[in-house]
Amino acid sequence: MTLTGGEVGARGAREKAAPAVVAKGLTKSYGRGDTTVHALRGVDVSFATGAFTAIMGPSGSGKSTLMHCLAGLDTVSGGQVHIGDVELTGLGDKRLTLLRRERIGFIFQAFNLLPTLTAEQNIRLPLDIAGRQADQDLFDRVVETVGLRDRLGHRPTELSGGQQQRVAVARALISKPQVIFADEPTGNLDSRSGAEVLSFLRTSVRELGQTIVMVTHDPVAASYADRVVFLRDGLLVSEIHRPTPQSVLDTLMKLEA
Amino acid sequence: MVKATLAGLLAHRLRLLLTSLAIALGVGFIAGTFVLTDTIDAGFSRRFAAAADKVDVAVLPAPGTDRQVPPHIPAAALEKVRAARGVADAQGLVRGTSALIGKDGKAAGDYPTSGLSVVEGPLNRTEITSGAAPKTDAQAVLDENTAKTRGFKVGDRITVLDSREARHEFTLVGLFDVGLDQELGYTGAVGYTTAMAQRMTGQRVFTEIDVVAAEGVSQEQARTAVAAALGPGYQVVTGEKFADDLAKRNGADTGILKTGLLLFGLVAMFVAALVIYNTFTILVAQRTREMALLRCIGATRGQVFGSVLLESTVVGLLSSALGLLLGYGLSLGALTALTSLGAPLPTGVAPTLTPRTIGLAVALGVIVTVGAALLPARTATRVAPIAALRSQIEERTFRTGVVRMVLAALFLLAGAGVTAAGVAMDPGETALFVVMAGGTVFFLGVLVFGPVLVRPLGALVGWLPAKLAGVPGRLAMDNSGRNPRRSATTTVALTVGVTLMTLIAVITGTVRTTFTERLDEQFPVDYLIQPQDRDATLPRALGQGLRNSPELASVVAFREKITKVGDRGAEFRVGTFTPAPGFRPELDKGSIALLTPGTAVIGRHVATDLGLKVGDRITVRTARAGTVNLRVAATFNPESGVLPPVTVPEGDFDRYFGAVGDSRMMINARDGVGADVGRRIVEAAAQPYPTAKVASAAEVRGQFEESLDMMVMIITGLLGLAVLISLLGIANTLSLSVHERTRESALLRALGLTRPQLRRMLSVEALILGLIGALVGVALGVGFGWAATRTMVDDVAFQVPVTQILAFVALSGLAGIVAAVLPARRAARASIVGSLATG
Q1: Which ranges carry the ABC transporter domain (chain A) (predicted)?
Q2: Model pLDDT for residues B543-581, shown as the tens digit of each residue
Q3: Is the pLDDT confidence value at A15 over 70?
Q4: Which of B130, B251, B271, B506 has its CA at a distance of 20 to 30 angstroms from the CA of residue B802?
């Protein structure tokens, strides 16, 4: 059942590089004694550099927990996580924070933006926090890509839900992170805005060589990815490449059964 | 509904406690004031009652009409009382002054010690604490405190001056406790047998006659008999009434203390009310969804309103209980502190917690809390049920309304106008009250205008911190101005305390500068010699001796007599000075050379009182030359404090009143004579005159500054309570904001903000809030301090104590940071994943 990066890497020239994220024997449990909940029961997975991977699974399958552990937002109970050449497990809060700052981008389902900052300030926020200068070319390119040029001076409350998520995408892209984790990025959007956001994500993978890992429960959203991995009861149970909404749905149905 | 409210309260115990603490501090202070003053009153009453137990009837002089002669009872009255029916024994009490000579050969203390009689037998009310009462005329007792400070013990020989300044020696046979007598506590006292007390003090009369009734005679019967025997002109009271009167008189003293402390208590309560108001407003805003849900499932507006009020009532009750405990402890501490500072307070009395104090504290706590929660409760009723379904609570946007601007402008203009009117008035109490009223109205204007001020002020004070703290600093600045109304209320609470502190600092600073400037200008002396008893005089020989010493440049002696001046029978001090080189008192017009024989220069107040102007004639009744008619040569400002109100030439004065002694001497050393050399010479010259007290200008200034510093410290300390409460407010607002922004903080943490950076962000926000409050407070305090000092005296030297004010600002900022410690820790500790999932 082990899915190694090697298998994936063999599939295309773009995926030759070392995997961006690797997890080995990842376990995570909450509580103690009788009430212990095992959210992850030993997950081995790797995510190729420059690929768009979706994580799917029924509610309670552990997909969000997996993402939080991979991104260094949560501590693991056992196993290892590597982002590039850095092992996350065992890092202190300070090192983890700096790692997130330098190598990871985030897009959340909701509440992605600080209400007090303008769109542009929100986009530049990760760089500001890190004390880095934005690459102006990259900034322009990202802003063009997500189509926010005339919205840069607005505050989040003056933007539509779709626009807010596009700002979040731009923010995730601007620091050129090793990997972007997206947690249900289209969960709160209507289908048209959702499709837009997903296209931007795919474009950024194709054109900027970005690595993206996305948690979703929406088969259509998952179909934008290069590869979909499926989780059930804290275990990786299946995966498909070059998914279509139908193939994703079929796999899900099989898992539910 | 009630269950839901109480469950909610229990779920947020920490918040409940923090909120309660603000009110509890205010209530505690007020309750403490009552406990303290009640305890003191109770102690006094008990002591007076104990003293009065010994006395069945007390005879007191009728209130005197002549200011010059204090009320007294003639010696003959004692025999009449003793002869009255039903009187077993009667003793007259003698009290006057008899200056104790210290071990340095000079009269001890700033004022002469009191001399009093220690009576024998059952009527002795003097509490001998060691040794025995004086039995013979060669024995005396001394009060414990004086004995301690002057280094005397039982068995020593002591020297005391009688009223004519003749020395007498006594054997110290005992020490006594002055008890609650404030005057004796201040001057110290020597006790003698009655006959000796009369000789020493020169008082042949009594201040009081105490009577013991014979067996079987009631107090009232004895009183009637004594009153009948004495005839009119006396107050004859029973022992019981006597004790009551004494207690009442002391009650009036504690009444002043109570009023003063309550004033500070009210300021604290006002600040606490602001804090509570803000807390409930934020709570209601945060629980919009919860309230909407309640409305959805059928709660009426009234029930929602009631639930907020119920919550505030519980908070109020809890605060009051906490406040009572706190007040009890505070008063206990205050009593201990006061007693250890040597205040003449009754000791060994348990703090008195009366039902009145309990009722008042509970009522105050509940009323203020519920009152402050009324507006937020009304806001809660406006929550629409549909709000429960909205996914995200909208940020309240603040727009500057026309009503607010008009209202603020109205208050500000009215306040400024009234203040200006007060400043324009003649200096005096009325003007000060007008300025105070103007200040209060202006402050209300600031309260209304506050939310508009927050953003620009935040940008101003936040500029540097934002620069220094980087991204956290910038975010903090944005956050501080994000909810202007909330920030304004939070900071205004701090502004109250800082305004009052600055005001006091400015006023005392100005008074200090004005005083020292005057001192330098009109009192340019190195040393001052005065008799210990201000009404006494010093022999002229002392001045003559000083004039002969080559190290001294000038010795000016002043001589005075109180006598009738003018036609209306008014009495003034008429006096003169011995001319000396360099002594040129300032007159309104012209120089002191105008003072020629047959003329007088008079203070402006004398001129006003008698309706005189320069060139008019003034009559002065003299001792030796009959009534003389003098020409007014000039007037002067009496505040200069140097010349007697009616000053005549030296030669004339001797002719009018004879060889009166010097009542004070101003001495200047020659240039180049060291301070210690000058002092040694002056002291050596004064040594043979035990009552001649030498003070240097620096000492006079030092004493004044010391008492001023003491006052500033006490007032600042008392205002510190209001500041402490406002800091609780900042902590509370901040922790509620942190709670509100849980997801935001989590997002920032996910994006790479480290824990220290997150903490720094909140610290800077608190710093900005603190600085805004302090800045507004300083501006108001300086402005109204200026206005207030204008109303005090003419030509004040306005002074802003910059370092002190900077310290207030720095402390406010620092305090803000301290207030942020706990909320910031909580925010930084929160798990990112958990926080992202909330809401």
Answers
A1: 21-257
A2: 888 888 888 888 999 999 988 888 877 888 999 999 888
A3: no
A4: B271
Let me know if residue B445 belongs to a domain: no
User: Going by C-beta distance under 8 Å and a sequence separation of 6 or more, which residues neighbour residue A27?
Assistant: A38, A40, A41, A42, A43, A76, A77, A78, A79, A234
Number of CB pairs < 8 Å for A and B? 76
* ipTM of this complex: 0.80
The minimal CB distance from A128 to the residues B471, B749, B836 is found for: B471
Pair (B161, B274) in one structural domain: no
Across B39-75, b (16+ Cβ under 10 Å) vs e yields bbbbbbbebbeebbeebbbbbbbeeeeeeeeeebbee
- Are the C-beta atoms of A197 and A218 separated by less than 8 Å? no
User: Is the full-model pTM beyond 0.80?
Assistant: no
DSSP element (H, E) containing B696: strand B692-696
Residues B682 and B730 in one domain: no
**pLDDT at site B838:** 56
Rounded to whole angstroms, the maximal C-alpha distance in chain A is 56
Q: Are residues B248 and B271 in the same domain?
A: yes
Tell me how close the Cα of A241 comes to any Cα of chain B, in angstroms. 29
Length in residues, chain A:
257
Please tell me whether residue B617 adopts helix, strand or coil conformation: strand
Per-residue confidence (pLDDT) for residue B700, from 0 to 100: 74
How many domains does the structure of chain B reveal? 4
Which pLDDT tens digit goes with each residue over B259-293?
888 888 888 888 888 888 888 888 887 777 777 77
One-letter amino acid at B363 equals A
Residue from B474, B751, B764, B835 whose CB has the most chain A CBs within 10 Å, to mutate: B751
Amino acid at B659: A
Residues of B in contact with A128 (CB under 8 A): 470-471, 474
Whether residue A98 and residue B752 make contact (CB cut-off 8 A), yes or no, is yes
Instruction: Residue A114: list chain B partners with CB under 8 A.
Output: 475, 744, 747-748
B834 touches chain A (CB under 8 A): no
Query: Which fold does the domain A50-65+92-256 belong to in CATH?
Result: Rossmann fold (3.40.50)
What pLDDT does B782 receive?
93
- Is there a contact between B201 and B185 (Cβ–Cβ < 8 Å)? no
